[in-house]
Amino acid sequence: MDFINTSSSAIKAQATPRRILPKRKRKETSYFPSDSESDLEGGDAEEYDSEIVGAPSAKKAKAPPAVQPPKPLPKKKIFPFASLPAELKNKIYSYALTSDEPIYLISKRKHHYRHTIALGDTDSFGKDGRRGSYGYIRQNDNPVIRKPPLVPQFLVLNRQIHAETQPILYGANIFAVEDMKALHTFLANIGPKNCETLQQLSIKQLGHSRSTSSLAYPAFVLLANAVNLTRLEMDCAISWGEGDRIGRAFWREAHHWIESIGRHKGRRDAALDIVDLTTKNVSLWLERSGKTKEQLLDEIRADFRAELRGLLKL
């Protein structure tokens, strides 16, 4: 009987259909990092899925914050410098780019290779010998260099301001150069366009040696572009002797500049009105004549101009 009952229960179980339960609805598991944190609904669902998959949950690395570019200032906070009247802008340029004292320039080498110029000492320039008794700056371990309070950075703001400030920087200042080497380096560095705007120039020495004095001729060739000069002060001894000898020595070095000024002004001897000799051209032996330096200087100037007019065949 037990066997029969067991068999009948098995047959009954086979005849009864099995109930199929519906599958549990859940989010599909992704094995790649998601771009959005909203794919999972809550932290419990994330833990449940990770337990089913059997892999540890990987937290998404936070991306570094993006660097935001600086926001431009609103137009109401930008000072309208370009729209100022020309008179006011020229006044600002004059304060920033001009000096009441001459701008003294000395020659030097940058990194022992490149020839350049530097600001000199406005107190001792032309008084004490820097390289001997030739009227140069005396340099020591800590030379006192007093630089003029200029702001040449104005020239690199934009093209409009460069065009407005360039004539003021080079035209409204007096440049005093140490020797012909400094003059040659200065003119070569600023270029012909800036050289054309020079107004006043002072030369303190032709040179303390043959190497520096030999640059007098190429320096005056570059100075031929300075056709707007109003005064060229030769504050140095060009040559020892009378005015005619000084005139011949000056013509030998500066005839290109003299002819260039004559072509630009329309008068061949126009450069003679620009050149100015100082008392340093008065030789010591001329002072024994009993005349004052001023009287001797007037005679030297007259002979100097007469000799140059003769060389110009006027």
Order of helices and strands: HHHEEHEHEHHEHEH
Largest sheet: 6 strands, mixed
Structural class: alpha/beta
Radius of gyration: 44 Å
* Sequence of strands across the biggest β-sheet: 2-1-3-4-5-6
Describe the protein in words.
The structure is a single chain. With about 325 residues, the chain is of the alpha/beta class. The protein has 9 helices and 6 strands; from the N terminus they run αααββαβαβααβαβα. The protein has a 6-stranded mixed sheet, with helices on one face. Strand 1 (about 105-110) and strand 2 (about 115-120) form a beta hairpin. It is elongated. The model is unreliable at about 35-55 and about 125-145 (pLDDT under 50).
Lay out the secondary structure.
Elements: H1 2-15, H2 42-53, H3 86-97, E1 103-110, E2 114-119, H4 159-171, E3 174-177, H5 180-195, E4 200-203, H6 210-213, H7 216-223, E5 231-234, H8 243-265, E6 275-277, H9 293-311
Parallel strand pairs: 1-3, 3-4, 4-5, 5-6
Antiparallel strand pairs: 1-2
Helix pairs in contact: 3-4, 5-7, 7-8, 8-9
